[in-house]
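Support request from a user on the community tier.

User writes: "When I paste my C-alpha cells into the form, the page sometimes reloads and wipes my input. The last time it worked, I copied everything first. Here is what I submitted, just in case something in the input itself triggers the reload:"
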C-alpha cells in the first residue's frame, strides 16, 4: 500500500497483479513472479537493488561475445550386457550450425541420386526372402510427392507366391528364434539402434523425398525408430526377469510364469511414419521371439528397407526378418489369410484394419491357433480451447497439431472446439498463424508444410477443400506451389457437428472449427465420434483439466500442449473405440501381445532326484 500511495502521488497509472482463483495455482503464480523479479538477471533487481544505470541496462546484448554452441555429443552404443536406463533419442537441435550443415549435405546426397539425369536409375528395393534379395517382374514406383515426375525408388511387387514362401521360411526358423535367450534377441535391437543412429541424417533426408516430410518431422521419425529399438530391447529383459518372480510359489510348489513368441508375425505398415511405425511393430514382434515378415506401404518402401538392413546388420538370423514390398490387396491380403501366421500387427486405415480383424478371426481348415490382431487405426481428433486458455500458447500449438506434416498424422487435430467467450479471437489468431506457415518442398529447411503423399490423397483432399464451402464457412485457404501434390491448409467453421467434414477422417491439412457454449458442450462435442485416438485441452482451470482428463474419450489426452508427437516410453501411443485394438505402442504392455504366457507348476515335495 505505501507503494501504491507513492505511485499515485506521482500521478502515474498503477496496475496491480492479483491472482484470482484456487489457492495452489495462485501460490505457484506468486512464486513465479517472485522468482522473476528477484532473479540475478532481473531488470528490477539490477536497477533498484543494485542501482545500475538505466542506459547501461538498455544497451542491446553484444551478440559477438556470446559463446558458440558446443558440438552435440553422440551417444555411445548400448551395451547389451548392461543396457542401463532407457532415454529417448534427442531430436536434432537445428540451432547448431553443424547439425544444419550435416542435414543439408545429406539432403544434397539424396537429391543427387534422384531426378532426371543421364544414366540415372531409381534405387531398386528388392524383397528379402529367406535371406535372399528377390526382384519381381512387376515393380512399384515410389515418387517424390513434391515433384511427382521424380521416381525415388522402384520396389518389388510381391504377391501370393512370395507370401507363401516367406511364411514357410519363417515357420522353419520360428522354434529356434523362440528359444533364443531374450538377452540375445535384445542385443539385436540395441545393435540395430546404433546402425540407425550412425546414419540418422541420411535416413531422415530420404524421407524428405519419398514421404514428403519436412526435416524436423523426418528427423523425429528416425529418432522414434531408434527409441523403439532401445525401449523394446529393455522391455523384453524386464519381462523375462519379472516373469520368474510374478507368481506365488508356496513351500513345496514351484511356479514359473514365462512368455514365449506366438509364432510367425506379419507386420503391415503405413507410409506416414515410414520408418518409426514399421520399426515399432517389427522390433516388438521380433524381440518377443517371433520371426517377422514386414510388408511396407507401397509409397515408402525405400525408407522401410533401412530397417531391414539395420536388423540384418545387427545380426538377425536368416529368415527371422523378411521384407515383402507389394500392394496391400495382393501380398498383404495373402499374408493375413495364411493359416501359419500367428500374429498380425497392422497400422493404417479403419477400413483395412477392420477387414483384417474380421478375416483373422475365422480359423481356416488345419489352423491350430486363433490369430492375434494388433490394429492401430485412424482418428478424428478434437482439441478444445477453454475460455481461460493462454492463447499465446494455444494458437501455435493448434496450428502445429493440425497442419504439421500436412495433417497426415493419425494424431493430428482435425476438430477444433472453441468456447464461445474466446471463439472469435481464437479463430482470427489461428487464421493469422496459419497464413504464416511455409508450404513447399520438404528438402528446403524453412518448409513447415509439405505435399500430401500421393495423387489419390491429393484429389480426395482437394475435393474436401472445395466441399468445405458447402458444409461451413471457409476462414482460410492457403497458397500452394504449382508442381507437386500440395493441398492448401484450410480452416473451415462448421455449425453442424454432424456435417461429414466434421466427422470423417480426412488425413490432410483441413481443420474444422466448432463453437461450444460451455465446457459441458465442448466435451460432448469432442466425444461425439466413432474414434478415440488423441484429444486435447488448453485451459488454465484445474477443474476443467480434471474433467478433460477424466471425460475425454481418447487413448492419448494432452493438456496445454500440441496433441501430436508422442514419445516412446513417455506417451505410450494408441487408441480405442474404432481407432484401434491392442495395447499402446511404446508402452509397458505392448510386447505381451506378441507372446503366449505359460505357467509351469512343479510339486517339489518329497520327490528326491533320479540319477540322470
Ligand atoms: P492403409 O490402410 O491404406 O494402408 C496401410 C497398410 O495396409 C499398407 O501397407 C497397405 O498396403 C496395406 N493394405 C491395404 N489393403 C490391404 C489389405 N486388403 N490387406 C492387407 N493389407 C492391406 O492406410 P495408409 O493410407 O497407409 O495410412 C493412413 C491411415 O493410417 C490413416 O487412417 C491413419 O489414421 C492411420 N494411422 C494410424 C496410426 C495409429 O497409431 N493409430 C498411425 C499411423 C497411421
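"...and here is what came back when it finally went through:"
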Amino acid at each position: 500500500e505505501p507503494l501504491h500511495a507513492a505511485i499515485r502521488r506521482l500521478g502515474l497509472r498503477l496496475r496491480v497483479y492479483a491472482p484470482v482463483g484456487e489457492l495452489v495455482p495462485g501460490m505457484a503464480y506468486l512464486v513465479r513472479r517472485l522468482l522473476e523479479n528477484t532473479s540475478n538477471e532481473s531488470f528490477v533487481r539490477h536497477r533498484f537493488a543494485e542501482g545500475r544505470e538505466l542506459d547501461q541496462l538498455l544497451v542491446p546484448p553484444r551478440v559477438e561475445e556470446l559463446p558458440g554452441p558446443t558440438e552435440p555429443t553422440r551417444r555411445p552404443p548400448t551395451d547389451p550386457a548392461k543396457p542401463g536406463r532407457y532415454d529417448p533419442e534427442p531430436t536434432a537441435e537445428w540451432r547448431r550450425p553443424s547439425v544444419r550443415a550435416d542435414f543439408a549435405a545429406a539432403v544434397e546426397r539424396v537429391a543427387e541420386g534422384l531426378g532426371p539425369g543421364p544414366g540415372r536409375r531409381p534405387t531398386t528395393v528388392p524383397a528379402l526372402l529367406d535371406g535372399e534379395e528377390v526382384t519381381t517382374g512387376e515393380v512399384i514406383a515410389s515418387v517424390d510427392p513434391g515433384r511427382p515426375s521424380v521416381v525415388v525408388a522402384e520396389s518389388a511387387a510381391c504377391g501370393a507366391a512370395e507370401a507363401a514362401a516367406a511364411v514357410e521360411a519363417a515357420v522353419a526358423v520360428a522354434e529356434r528364434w523362440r528359444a533364443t535367450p531374450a538377452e540375445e534377441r535384445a542385443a539385436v535391437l540395441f545393435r540395430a539402434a546404433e546402425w540407425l543412429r550412425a546414419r540418422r541424417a541420411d535416413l531422415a533426408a530420404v524421407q524428405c523425398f519419398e514421404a514428403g516430410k519436412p526435416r524436423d518431422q523426418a528427423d523425429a521419425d528416425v529418432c522414434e525408430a531408434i527409441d523403439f529399438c532401445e525401449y523394446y530391447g529393455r522391455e523384453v529383459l524386464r519381462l523375462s526377469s519379472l516373469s520368474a518372480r510374478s507368481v506365488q510359489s508356496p513351500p513345496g510348489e514351484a511356479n514359473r510364469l514365462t512368455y514365449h513368441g506366438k509364432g510367425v508375425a506379419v507386420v503391415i505398415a503405413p507410409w506416414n511414419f515410414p520408418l518409426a511405425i514399421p520399426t515399432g511393430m517389427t522390433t516388438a514382434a521380433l524381440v518377443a521371439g517371433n520371426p517377422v515378415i514386414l510388408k511396407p506401404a507401397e509409397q515408402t518402401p525405400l525408407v522401410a528397407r533401412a530397417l531391414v538392413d539395420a536388423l540384418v546388420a545387427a545380426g538377425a538370423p536368416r529368415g527371422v526378418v523378411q521384407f515383402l514390398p507389394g500392394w496391400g490387396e495382393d501380398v498383404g491380403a495373402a499374408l493375413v489369410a495364411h493359416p501359419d501366421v500367428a500374429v498380425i500387427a497392422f497400422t493404417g486405415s479403419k477400413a483395412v484394419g477392420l477387414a483384417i480383424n474380421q478375416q483373422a478371426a475365422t480359423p481356416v481348415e488345419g489352423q491350430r491357433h486363433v490369430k492375434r490382431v494388433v490394429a492401430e487405426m485412424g482418428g478424428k481428433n478434437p482439441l478444445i480451447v477453454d475460455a481461460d486458455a493462454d492463447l499465446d500458447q494455444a494458437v501455435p500449438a493448434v496450428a502445429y497439431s493440425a497442419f504439421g506434416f500436412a495433417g497426415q498424422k493419425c494424431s493430428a487435430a482435425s476438430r477444433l472446439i472453441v468456447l464461445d467467450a474466446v471463439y472469435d479471437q481464437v479463430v482470427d489468431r489461428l487464421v493469422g498463424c496459419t497464413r504464416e506457415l511455409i508450404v513447399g518442398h520438404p528438402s528446403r529447411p524453412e518448409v513447415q508444410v509439405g505435399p500430401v503423399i500421393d495423387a489419390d490423397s491429393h484429389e480426395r483432399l482437394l475435393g474436401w477443400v472445395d466441399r468445405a464451402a458447402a458444409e461451413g464457412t471457409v476462414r482460410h485457404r492457403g497458397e500452394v506451389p504449382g508442381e507437386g501434390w500440395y493441398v492448401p491448409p484450410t480452416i473451415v467453421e462448421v455449425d453442424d457437428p454432424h456435417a461429414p467434414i466434421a466427422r470423417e477422417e480426412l488425413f490432410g491439412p483441413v481443420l474444422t472449427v466448432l463453437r461450444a457454449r460451455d465446457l459441458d458442450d465442448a466435451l460432448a462435442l469432442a466425444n461425439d465420434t466413432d474414434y478415440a485416438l488423441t484429444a486435447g485441452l488448453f485451459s488454465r482451470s484445474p477443474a476443467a483439466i480434471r474433467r478433460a482428463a477424466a471425460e475425454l474419450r481418447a487413448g492419448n489426452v494432452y493438456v496445454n500442449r500440441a496433441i501430436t508427437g508422442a514419445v516412446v516410453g513417455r506417451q505410450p501411443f494408441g487408441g480405442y473405440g474404432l481407432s484401434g485394438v491392442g495395447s499402446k505402442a511404446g508402452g509397458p504392455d505392448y510386447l505381451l501381445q506378441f507372446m503366449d504366457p505359460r505357467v509351469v507348476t512343479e510339486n517339489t515335495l518329497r520327490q528326491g532326484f533320479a540319477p540322470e
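Agent notes: The reload is a front-end session timeout and is unrelated to the input. Residues 151 and 254 are 61 Å apart (CA to CA). The two ends are 92 Å apart (CA to CA). Escalated to web team.
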